[in-house]
Amino acid sequence: MAKLTLDDLRKLREEKRQALEIRETDNKTIQVIVGMGTSGIAAGAKRTLNQFMTCIEQYNLTSVSLRQTGSIGLDHAEPVVEVKMPGMPDIIYGRVDPEVAKLIVERHILGKELVNDHVFDRPAPDIVEG
To answer: For 69-93, what is each residue's pLDDT tens digit?
Structure first.
């Protein structure tokens, strides 16, 4: 195994600091919560989580916090992701592979439009205003 230089260690520290910062919730208005129960992990939730992390970094979305939780309760639709953001209803997306995760970032978070083919739960129409 090759020895790490001081510059290698500094780079690694910065990468890990950025990864931890994405998970912080303080002063962040948008939450992306990935279900990481055993069925979610078996269905590929780790790859989904990694794609969200990549997209958040790529688009420099400093207002987005990425978190994990246990089962969200829709095992038949794993991997499952909940998105909470101002001005939109809280949405639970199902069957979220890395490609769908990228769509959620681009359409839902950046474009404020639902990714309808993957919506598995949303508030009743009489709850959502206009």
So the answer is: 998 888 999 999 999 999 998 999 9
Instruction: Count structural domains, the chain.
Output: 1
CA atoms within 13 A on the CB side of 40: 24
Residue 100 lies in a domain: yes
CA–CA dist 16, 10 (Å, integer): 10
Phi/psi zone of residue 90: left (φ > 0), alpha (ψ -120 to 50 degrees), beta? beta
Chain center to CA of 68:
8
According to DSSP, the residues that pair with 33 across neighbouring strands are 67, 82
Which 8-state DSSP code applies to residue 53? Answer: H
- Parallel, antiparallel or unpaired: strands 30-35 and 64-69: parallel
